[in-house]
Amino acid sequence: KENCRPYGRELGEFRTTTVNIGSIATADGSALVKLGNTTVICGVKAEFAAPPADATNKGYIVPNVDLPALCSARFRSGPPGEEAQAASQFIADVIENSQIIMKEELCIANGKLAWVLYCDLICLDYDGNILDAFTCAFLAALKNVQLPKVTINEETGLAEVNFKEKTPLNIRKHPIATSFAIFDDTLLIVDPTAEEEDLATGSITVVMDEDGRLCSVHKPGGSGLTGAKLQDCITRAVTRHKEVKKLMDTTTESVKLK
Amino acid sequence: PPSQAALSQHGLSLQMRGSRSKTLHDRALVNCQYSMATFSTGERKRRPHGDRKSNEMTQHLKQTFEAAILTQLYPRSQIDIYVQILQADGGNYCACVNAATLAVIDAGIPMRDYVCASSAGFIEDTPLADLNYVEEAAGGPQVALALLPKSDQIALLEMNSRLHEDHLESVIEAASKACKDVYAVLDQVVREHLQEVTTLLGE
């Protein structure tokens, strides 16, 4: 009725977003993102592997989402539940569709050695809109990754790693997700909390990159949406992209200055 | 220490799921789970939980908190404590205990006292408090101590490797002092938080 949500938040307004990059020293790249109370952390570890047989010049990026019992009472401990698996697949799709990194750049020696980037995303506090938080944390962590220089010794055929020379990854595109909760086919609210998600009749997530290109539109069933409403979502996603990109750039700059 | 642990507590639940047979008729059951993030160690950890070390840690945490929480006040209930290690740099158990103490206090569950933990070792005839990963890996004797600071009662004491009994006292002394220092920090944090919350509630 009053066109706003509890705590006076507007229907199109996001919660306070906080990004912290590089806090986990044991990981090759890491980021912590908070969207209001929703807190997620992404840690990237790089290892060696043989390139896939059908693409000998490519490396791997393997996302894995974990929604442990500690983030919310709705999750039990045990193997990954449906929501965690769906989120993992969502991130994998974003990687494929947005071409965030060229997998060819992860190859060290064609057919012999390549990097595999294990990206583990853990939710520490679940208060809705985890997909947006995960995508943001994933992107920020990748930007934080520094890979050491690897050369293959001609004589022994073994890899020699030079930890003193590190280069960051070449991040080609910056996909950012914007999620909405749908109520009764008409009302759209951005960045739903857990309570709002539980009451919603449907949801939609739009992933955009900086060139204004759609990388992914994820609408898993739920109540219908008109074309015009979808267009509104996309427009909002474009503005959100600018907000988040600016935040991430500021954070990355401040980490570099240290 | 740079070991970072995230913790959550789901307060009390009337024990319904799981085996009914585990329900205790006269007190609450304390259930812990210790898990390490795959990126928390130098080498990527493939099994976050379920391996022997994690199970041992889980047991230790459970025993420590069963000693501290006033479980008799909540019969037929279950208290779940979940700990997740985000970065491991030595003193994992101690970081978990300290984090869990704060979480239990935050959940409003009464305890006998804070439980503060610290590790200590003995290298080159010197007791060292709060060992980091490199110091632990050096292989010398290590003691993990969980203390109830006000009453000076030991909730858990674990020692590995070999230590001459003449040196034991000084090592425990070093760990105790570190525990009391941790207690001072935890207490201050709790009081500040409480002040903030009561100010906000009062508005």
UniProtKB/TrEMBL annotation, chain A:
GO process terms (BP): exonucleolytic trimming to generate mature 3'-end of 5.8S rRNA from tricistronic rRNA transcript (SSU-rRNA, 5.8S rRNA, LSU-rRNA); nuclear mRNA surveillance; nuclear polyadenylation-dependent rRNA catabolic process; rRNA catabolic process; TRAMP-dependent tRNA surveillance pathway; U1 snRNA 3'-end processing; U4 snRNA 3'-end processing; U5 snRNA 3'-end processing
Keywords on record: Acetylation, Cytoplasm, Exosome, Nucleus, RNA-binding, rRNA processing
SUPFAM superfamilies: Ribonuclease PH domain 2-like (SSF55666), Ribosomal protein S5 domain 2-like (SSF54211)
Any Pfam family the entry gives: RNase_PH_C
Single GO cellular component term: chromosome
Alphabetized InterPro entries for the sequence: ExoRNase_PH_dom1 (IPR001247), ExoRNase_PH_dom2 (IPR015847), ExoRNase_PH_dom2_sf (IPR036345), Exosome_comp_Rrp42_subfam (IPR050590), PNPase/RNase_PH_dom_sf (IPR027408), Ribosomal_Su5_D2-typ_SF (IPR020568), Rrp43 (IPR033196)
Gene3D superfamilies (alphabetical): GHMP Kinase, N-terminal domain
Record's subcellular location: Cytoplasm; Nucleus, Nucleolus
GO molecular function, one term: identical protein binding
Limits of the Exoribonuclease phosphorolytic domain: 13-148, 175-238
Keyword field contains Cell membrane: no
Main location: cytoplasm
Family statement: Belongs to the RNase PH family.
Full protein name: Exosome complex component RRP43
Organism of provenance: Sphenodon punctatus
UniProtKB/TrEMBL annotation, chain B:
Keyword Cytoplasm among record annotations: yes
GO cellular component: cytoplasmic exosome (RNase complex); cytosol; euchromatin; nuclear exosome (RNase complex); nucleolus; nucleoplasm
Single GO biological process annotation from the record: DNA deamination
Localization of this protein: Cytoplasm; Nucleus, Nucleolus
Keyword Transferase: no
GO molecular function, one term: mRNA 3'-UTR AU-rich region binding
Keywords (A to Z) from UniProt: Cytoplasm, Exosome
Alphabetized InterPro entries for the sequence: ExoRNase_PH_dom1, ExoRNase_PH_dom2, ExoRNase_PH_dom2_sf, PNPase/RNase_PH_dom_sf, Ribosomal_Su5_D2-typ_SF, RNase_PH
Residue span, Exoribonuclease phosphorolytic domain: 26-110, 113-178
Function: Non-catalytic component of the RNA exosome complex which has 3'->5' exoribonuclease activity and participates in a multitude of cellular RNA processing and degradation events.
Subunit structure comment from the entry: Component of the RNA exosome complex.
Record family assignment: Belongs to the RNase PH family.
Name the UniProt record assigns to this protein: Putative exosome complex component RRP41
Organism encoding this protein: Sphenodon punctatus
